[in-house]
Amino acid sequence: MPPAFAGGQTDFWSKPRRVWLQRRVAGRIEEVNEVYFADGQLLRDPYIRACRLLRDVRAGEAVQMSPVLLDILCGIQGVAIAHGIDRPLITNSGYRSPKTNSATEGAAKNSLHMQGRAWDGRMPDYPAKMLAQIAQYLQGGGVGLYVASNFCHVDDGRLRTWRGA
Ligand SMILES: [Zn+2]
């Protein structure tokens, strides 16, 4: 199921869906900024590129990320763009292998990161709190706000919110 999407953006899901992701890996910036879904289907190559960016960097493993998670990220950017803010989502973490997850401080034991269904990150010069507010408004799944570390967690699991450090 796609995010419920409160509000009046009824044509949102009929439009092509784009994500703009960035990630710093070993001092280099990786980027995916493209339409991954159009005409009712996932576009294979852009989807694979997004999955690759969202890989477990530590383990060097990529998996098929949840398309609903991508929709949540797309929705967050859509709302931000509607407010005049068109910026990349900076990725801290996407997929995590069980080994990486257990080595991640504060990670939940059954984290949805291990199923390719969760994302941690932020937008440049944008408070993580605002990002979390947008994500909550979208009602796509879980939303965690980490104020001190300045990032937001989103996943496509059940609706819930929490605050971390
Ligand atoms: Zn997370």
From TrEMBL:
Organism listed in the record: Hydrogenophaga aromaticivorans
Return the similarity comment: Belongs to the peptidase M15 family.
Recorded protein name is Murein endopeptidase K
For this UniProt record, give its keywords in alphabetical order, as a comma-separated list: Cell wall biogenesis/degradation, Hydrolase, Metal-binding, Metalloprotease, Protease, Signal, Zinc
Per the record, the GO terms for biological process are: cell wall organization; proteolysis
Q: Looking at the Swiss-Prot or TrEMBL record, what is one Pfam family this protein matches? A: Peptidase_M15_2
Pathway given in the UniProt record: Cell wall biogenesis; cell wall polysaccharide biosynthesis
Alphabetized PANTHER family for the sequence: OUTER MEMBRANE PROTEIN, PTHR37425
- Taxonomic classification, please? Bacteria, Pseudomonadati, Pseudomonadota, Betaproteobacteria, Burkholderiales
Does the keyword section mention Ion transport? no
Q: From the UniProt record, which GO molecular function terms apply? A: metal ion binding; metallopeptidase activity
Q: Which superkingdom heads the taxonomic lineage of this protein's source?
A: Bacteria
Q: In the record, which residues are listed under signal peptide?
A: none
Cofactor requirements of the protein:
Zn(2+)
